[in-house]
Design brief:
about 30% helix; Rossmann fold; about 190 residues; 6 helices; alpha/beta; three-stranded mixed sheet; five-stranded parallel sheet
Length: about 190
């Protein structure tokens, strides 16, 4: 099912969102993922083991995916906007973990108010090189792991990343204290 009259993107598979906040839960039929309010405390468990990580830093992933899936970015940004609107999220800072070439953040930067800052993190030098070409005021990209920094954001986007991480439960524990809200999409 798809909301807002959008057409389903066939390669994304089943599309649904579940979100929970302040003890209330509901489901929207848009996009696989969830938004939730996270308590602010830290856990330290390894997220991505070194072996799978190499695929993203040595150029192998780019060879298999030369567009870095940027053609899907405008559609994904619209779904994120719709979800934020429905849940009355008004972030002042948005960070995307595993931002790839930066297309989702670039689209959100265009669509959202000018008081919001956008930051993207990716461990791939090839993806970051593409993303850095998009940098403008309030839109920046870092070639490193978010977990190497101690920054806090109002909203974290983890879009099509979890399926690439071997220990995704450890990763989720580590990012929990990094934002009040999170939006996930996973294609397992």
């Amino acid at each position: 099912m798809v909301a807002l009259g959008e057409t389903e993107q066939p390669r994304l598979g089943g599309i649904s969102i579940a979100w929970a906040r302040a003890g209330h839960a509901t489901a929207d039929f848009i996009y696989t993922g969830q938004v939730y309010k996270a308590p602010r405390h830290r856990g330290r468990n390894p997220g991505m083991n070194e072996a799978p990580r190499i695929r993203y830093t040595d150029g192998e992933y780019l060879l298999a995916n030369p567009t870095w899936h940027e053609e899907d970015s405008p559609w994904k940004a619209k779904q994120i906007m719709a979800m934020a609107h429905r849940n009355d999220l008004q972030p002042r800072s948005i960070c995307e973990v595993g931002c790839g070439a930066g297309g989702i953040l670039e689209a959100l930067h265009t669509l959202m108010p000018e008081n919001i800052s956008f930051v993207g993190y990716d461990i791939s030098p090839q993806a970051c090189a593409k993303a850095k070409e998009k940098e403008i005021e309030r839109l920046t990209f870092h070639e490193r792991d978010l977990l190497e920094d101690d920054d806090f954001y109002d909203l974290l986007l983890i879009i099509d990343v979890l399926e690439h991480i071997e220990d995704y439960f450890g990763f989720l524990r580590q990012i929990r204290p990094r934002s009040d809200y999170k939006i996930f999409n996973a294609c397992f």
